[in-house]
Amino acid sequence: MSGIIVVGSQWGDEGKGKVVDVFSSMSDYVVRYQGGANAGHTLIVDGKKTVLHLIPSGVLHEDTTCVIGSGVVLDIETLGKELIALKNNGFLSDPKQLLISDSCTVIMPYHKMLDQAREKSRGLDKIGTTGKGIGPAYEDRASRRAILATDLFHPESLRKKLELSLQEKNFLFEKFYDIPPIDVDQALKEIEPLVEILKPHRCKDTSLLIHQALKGGKKVLFEGAQGTLLDLLHGTYPFVTSSSTISGSACIGSGIGPKMIKDVVGITKAYCTRVGSGPFPTEQLNEIGEFLQQQGHEFGATTGRQRRCGWLDLVALNYAIRINGITSIALMKLDVLSGMKEIKVCTGYEVNGTLTKDFPNSIDTLENITPVYDTLPGWDQDISKSSSILDLPKAAQDYIQYVSQKVAIPIDVVSVGPDRKQTLWIKPLFH
Ligand code: GDP
Ligand code: IMO
Ligand code: MG
């Protein structure tokens, strides 16, 4: 079977979009399976930037079919904007290049309102969500009051479902958040234009489509959103997103069996970043963090927020390798480390005087650990124009080898710049 999962091994924004774009030239299908427009995946081709929130990052390759699976929470307004931008730039001329599951949960305007109202009421204890309604939409799915994509095409039952969903929301809005209630007719009116956006891309059964593709020997890439440490169950709860972001979610969110998966590629920045609140053991609230933030242009692709920055954390990375079953790593943004005298890498955590290499499963512990570091020599040269691993300065080559040995996983791809071209291959994909 030729299913490959691309998963973020840190707190998101590792460069998944870039890797998926690069791998897509060798893939027949690219599938998004969880999350929603909280994701921001950046693709740069010959200097031209495309930021995608919902549409899979294979879309710039016209022979690659893009699929949005049932596990995604669908913000059709954002989808509409993305479609327009892509079409204006000459992409997606065939609507059938993008197929969207009829079983996706639809994000409604009231989900975003609730997300934002909750964050506001939490004050300093806020999660730092993207405000895109992700949590409230997944809650509706779990409590069986969600509007699914298919419902938009059945006006009578849609009204009933909306009434059910709005009953509780309006109670919350009025009594708890001092927000005027939402009228069902108004909500229905707002939905009308969304139906037209979705219509050309409807697919009744994306699970069957993907299954048949894999059975027929097609190459299918599963594009994760967010990152391992934002996973609802296995991340730094409660500072997480509301979906399962780990590799297992690819099977659940797209509706295929685990035996269809051949490899899991862990996308890993050569350092760490995080947006929003929550523990971050190797965070550098000093000139090192500022250097990484500036050199790496670390601003969120969805909210524009400044990303918090710190050293690579091998305890967290080994945890990600374990729970995702990562088989190889794409090491991203190595160029950002150029110019550092020395580079630190966290190899363990000290907890109450005891050294551990296991990522703690409680944030209370995580907030009280002291990272233990190895120090490696840095390099001065600009490596962004290197065309092979052998072109890199010895210290950069040693850094790659050091990381690979510490995690006992091959590094198959090294990225030295945001552009598609700035990608160094150690081993080809789908070998
Ligand atoms: P994603 O959410 O994992 O797809 O990552 P984002 O697109 O949110 O953030 C990654 C950022 O780093 C984007 O601005 C990319 O253009 C950029 N990027 C990706 N790879 C590299 C790299 O190797 N070097 C540099 N300097 N930038 C990179
Ligand atoms: P990509 O796919 C980085 C973070 C938010 C917040 C938490 C919960 O681009 O890597 P949510 O809106 O999901 O309820 O917010 O999760 N977050 C991300 N951080 N990259 C992302 O996606 C993220 N998606 C959500 O900042 O801390
Ligand atoms: Mg991102």
Task: Detail the topology: elements first, then pairings.
Elements: E1 3-8, H1 16-24, E2 29-32, E3 41-45, E4 48-52, E5 65-68, E6 73-74, H2 76-88, E7 98-101, E8 105-106, H3 109-122, H4 134-142, H5 155-176, H6 184-198, E9 202-203, H7 206-215, E10 220-223, H8 248-254, E11 261-269, E12 272-274, H9 287-295, E13 308-310, E14 312-313, H10 314-324, E15 328-332, E16 342-351, E17 354-356, H11 363-366, E18 370-377, H12 394-407, E19 411-415, E20 423-425
Parallel strand pairs: 1-10, 1-11, 2-5, 2-10, 5-7, 6-8, 7-9, 11-15, 14-16, 15-19
Antiparallel strand pairs: 3-4, 12-13, 16-17, 16-18, 19-20
The structure holds guanosine-5'-diphosphate (GDP), 6-O-phosphoryl inosine monophosphate and magnesium ion (MG).
What does it look like?
With 431 residues, the protein is of the alpha/beta class. It folds into 2 domains: 3-97 and 203-425, Adenylosuccinate Synthetase, Chain A, domain 3 (Alpha-Beta Complex), CATH 3.90.170.10; 105-200, Adenylosuccinate Synthetase, subunit A, domain 2 (Orthogonal Bundle). It has helices at 16-24, 76-88, 109-122, 134-142, 155-176, 184-198, 206-215, 248-254, 287-295, 314-324, 363-366, 394-407; strands at residues 3-8, 29-32, 41-45, 48-52, 65-68, 73-74, 98-101, 105-106, 202-203, 220-223, 261-269, 272-274, 308-310, 312-313, 328-332, 342-351, 354-356, 370-377, 411-415, 423-425. The protein has a 10-stranded mixed beta sheet, with helices on both faces. Strands 14, 16, 17 and 18 form a 4-stranded mixed beta sheet that branches. It has a two-stranded antiparallel ribbon with strand order 3-4. The two termini are 12 Å apart. Bound molecules: guanosine-5'-diphosphate, 6-O-phosphoryl inosine monophosphate and magnesium ion (MG). Residues 8, 12-18, 40-42, 44, 296, 301, 332-333, 335-336, 415-418 line the site of guanosine-5'-diphosphate. Guanosine-5'-diphosphate binds next to helix 1 and strand 3.
